[in-house]
Amino acid sequence: MRKISTVITGLLAFSVVLAACGKNNDNGASSSPAASPSAASPSATTPASPSSDTPETTDLTKVKATISIYYPTPDQTEKRALEDDKIKRFNEVYPNVEIVKSDWQYNPNEIGIKMGANEAPTLFNTYATEGKFLAEKGWAADITDLFNAYDKKDQLNPILLDQFNIGGKIFGIPQQGYVVGTVVNTKMLKDKGVAVPSLDWTWDDVLNTAKGVADPKKGIAGIAPMGKGNEAGWNWTNFLFEAGGEIQTVDGGKVTAAFNSEAGLKALEFYSKLKEAKVIPGDWALGWGDAVGAFAQGRTAMVIAGPDGPVDQALNQGGMKPEDVTVYPMPAAQAGGKHTGVLGGDFLVINPNATKDEQQLAFQYAVFDYFSDKGLASTEESIKQRKTENKYFVPPVIQYFKQDSEYGAKVKAVYDKYDNVYQYSNELMALLDGKPEAQFNTQEYYGEMTKVIQEVFSKSNVDLKAQLDVAAKTMQDKFYNNIKS
Length: 485
Known about the structure:
Keywords: Signal. Residues 1-19 form the signal peptide. InterPro entries: Bact_solute-bd_prot1, SBP. There is one protein chain. By secondary structure, this protein is α+β, with helices and mostly antiparallel strands. It has helices at residues 77-93, 111-116, 131-137, 144-149, 158-161, 186-191, 203-213, 230-242, 262-276, 288-296, 308-316, 356-366, 373-388, 406-416, 426-431, 442-458, 464-478, and strands at residues 65-70, 97-102, 123-127, 165-166, 169-170, 173-179, 181-185, 248-251, 254-257, 302-305, 325-329, 339-350, 398-399, 432-436. It has 2 domains: 22-179 and 345-421, 3-Layer(aba) Sandwich (D-Maltodextrin-Binding Protein, domain 2), CATH 3.40.190.10; 181-342 and 437-482, 3-Layer(aba) Sandwich (D-Maltodextrin-Binding Protein, domain 2). The chain contains 17 helices and 14 strands. The strands form 5 sheets. Strands 3, 6, 12, 13 and 14 form a 5-stranded mixed beta sheet that branches. Strands 10-7-11 form a 3-stranded antiparallel beta sheet. Strand 4 and strand 5 form a beta hairpin.
């Protein structure tokens, strides 16, 4: 079995699927920013040690304070129920703290306004691309002291933690993560007499499989790459990575666009092949919800995303069975190549405008269920509840804890008790190769590439290299040249 990439070392022992975030891993604003209310803390009844710059005599159970926390949106009824239970249990330990629920979803276009008006929650959700941005803007509290005083810090998953480790300082609390993959309706393939490819597949396998299953006259696509919103650029970037390309290079403080490379051209040529082969939807302008919805409805055989969203919708809304839905890694550009997918994740950030006491309490709330039996019990109750509703539970592919840890084994044991928990295979986990998104102006880059992809999908004989060069020049002139080291 192939060794897993060093980026996701430790996942092999824990086969699971990715949990959807508030953005459903759509990356329309980036990597899936949903809080995972069932995620867990030190012992739910044992407060972590205080920060080193706060007197150790401070008793946080006696500090009168109000903190506002990220609260799932109204459509996430199950997550709200879990969060309500967590608030109740937190207040049993900290009856002195008033918890205010905020359903504001992080938006890079709104965070500056929120901070300027002092309206940002004490604890808010964000995603993997935003660590450096928030730290440099002063919109995320430096929680290094709180982190260093946390007795479970060494058990947190470094794959995620590193995303908010900026210059040796910690600015975010990891919740869950994912590596983008391709979710395949294998039942559709079998029904059409199309061979089910190996998990160790290639771009050619994707194209041939899509050709075999597509039926344009019936509105059935072989694959539905996203074509609108920043999701389109996000989807395509996986192919850029697989071809060995980079979004940008950083040297001596200078940021340079790098996606208009031979690798970028190769990735765009593959998109052109998909379009010319008529295996993408006729109405290709699909956002995350459109593409995932098409998959759940059986209108496309394949969709590219953080796996949890498509799997959850296919099983719980589309009526599919676990054996009908297979999560693949992203295809390698050629046989023997890496199955590289965008690495993303969900994080909680503490408002730097909050007082030291409020910041400490927000940290305590964020990790309240981490590594605890209460957190484990909460997860199991959620699985049981889903079973009574004849629904499946789809956990994250990358959890806040190290997957090969003692706690990871406990979680896996809970999953194994129930037949309604969707789990990844060890083979898949061994093939996954995660690569973080760009350090600078990720969303603007995705937006520029979306324009290019729309040109490719809507027109014939497009000068692909010229399109890439225009997008690169725009990014360079408007954004990268303005970055100060």
